[in-house]
Design goal:
Helices cover 32% and strands 26% of the residues. The protein is built from two helices and five strands; from the N terminus they run αββαβββ. It has a five-stranded mixed beta sheet with strand order 1-2-5-4-3, covered by helices on one side. The model has no long low-confidence stretch (mean pLDDT 89).
Length: 110
């Protein structure tokens, strides 16, 4: 695997920190959205397991606006329900227990 030149590293760092600033500003403006469960180089994850998981999924997807949300169930027996969308250079992923989503195939933004 080939490394990056110093100029490429600076550009990658600048792009990443810029995306982090956009995400931070978004979270500051949308106090109804909880902090992400984790953030990788290109993905922002929100995981909700108990209680009001469905409501939290709807809050997060609504806050991110008019993104084109893809949904799927996966895992053993379809245990997880996932909604994901591209937003400001990130892939936003919201994951809940499928049992919190009583309507199979329901779109996250509905």
């Amino acid at each position: 695997m080939q490394g990056f030149t110093p100029a490429e590293e600076r550009l990658r760092r600048s792009q990443y920190t810029g995306r982090l600033r956009v995400l931070g500003d978004f979270l500051d403006r949308h106090l109804e959205v909880p902090p992400p469960s984790h953030v990788t180089g290109t993905e922002v994850h929100f995981h909700f397991w108990l209680g009001d998981a469905r409501q939290r999924l709807e809050i997060v997807t609504r806050a991110f606006g008019q993104c084109a949300w893809d949904t799927r169930t996966w895992g053993p027996g379809g245990v997880y329900y996932e909604a994901s969308a591209a937003w400001e250079g990130w892939r936003v992923v919201v994951l809940v227990m499928a049992s919190a989503m009583p309507e199979p195939g329901r779109t996250a933004a509905a």
